[in-house]
Amino acid sequence: MTTSPAPRGLTRGLSARHIHFIALGSAIGTGLFYGSAEAIQKAGPAVLLAYVVAGAAVFVVMRSLGEMAVRHPVPGSFGQYASRYLGPLAGFITGWTFAFEMAIVALADVTAFGVYMGFWFPDVPRWIWILAIIFVIAGLNTMRVKVFGEMEFWLSLIKVVAILAMIFGGIALMVFGFQMQAEAAVGPQNLIQHGGFMPHGVGGIIASLAVVVFAFGGIETIGITAGEANDPGHSIPKAINTVPLRILLFYVGTLAVIMSLFPWDKIGSEGSPFVTIFAQLGIPAAPSILNVVVITAAVSAINSDIFSAGRMLFGLAQQGQAPPAFARVSKNGVPLLTAAIMGCTLLIGVVLNAVIPEKIFLVIASIASFATVWVWIMILLAHIAMKREQARDGAAPSAFPVPGGRVASYAALAFMVLVLVVLGFFEDTRTALYVGAAWIVLLVIAYRIWVKGAGRQRADLDGAGDGTTPAGRSTPHLPE
Known about the structure:
With 480 residues, this protein is mainly α. The protein is built from 18 helices and no strands. The longest helix is centred in the C-terminal third of the chain and has 34 residues, at 360-393. The model is unreliable at 1-9 and 458-476 (pLDDT under 50).
């Protein structure tokens, strides 16, 4: 396998270390530090099972994406793989849905940021903080990709260290028999008391899946980095093999400790459950320190969301599936227009937090879950189609195959369909299915009119991938 050069304008400045933490930045953030409270209330301690099952399915998605990314290290990643193996319409829908996903996830992240700031400034309207952070993040995304990668590394490292410290600190509290103020003694017994391990039954676990899947959303960002990775054939597999497992450990391990320290039914959705719990430990500085950590996590996630959406739109523009202006880059090699548009999109969060501050998070998380699951389904279908093509053509085995092959992909695909059914089954998440269906219909219409009708499809990506490839192919020929 040979590695194609980066597209003209983008620079290969991301090391394996950067790629690890960019993915962590998007996937370990609001879903853990804020949204986990919602999932805990739905399933109780059994939410740990939901994270394990979802984590296993997500790992298959990531390995599927990794197999394709190593074979075709191009910008736009799975958007272009969907075009290559499922057809241009599928690629168009996948690419734009991922950008939509990143925008919605970023809305959830800025909402959480506003909530966190309310811990210190309860009398300041949430939307003011959200407006301020939008301008800061938009500015950060104008820097060179190497600077961005380094910054994301340190932001993500802070929250990873904090999570590990929390896990070991929580275990120490249990070992030494510490007791929360006015609550029962800490310990694993809290996982089976207060209604039992599965207080809401299997239905509670299923009901929590929408929020659980939202928590893992953004991990597919690893595929987006292929176009700017120094050595995608080495760094992408290494990141994929370790990051999902780390995230699963962080989620399951951290939430197990939290629910051991504090009865699960007392963990509310006001602020971060991490801060709420440690505020009751009697350690004066602990809540403020943790609030700094969760704020850092939110900023890191927003930063990663904007980066990912920008690179996907860049790849779509190269294929003629987005306005050509999205493929233009600054002197720093950054697609500035996409960062500006994402910043403007986030202004919607300012309005929503001013109008419906109490209901916004679950609505946004549900819509983001739909977009996330749709993208994952497209990744799995593209992988299945690629394996089918390889078998038909007698192609050489992949350098980074999925354990279990197409069987594993089909199993993960069945799980993703279940999540979509769950979104439609429960009233408080059904809106996501309506919004998602309307979004897909809108994209189909847009493709028929704007791309296919105008003959804008540029899909031949063989060669340098500089965005000047000729028209005429219905599906791209990706570089091997």
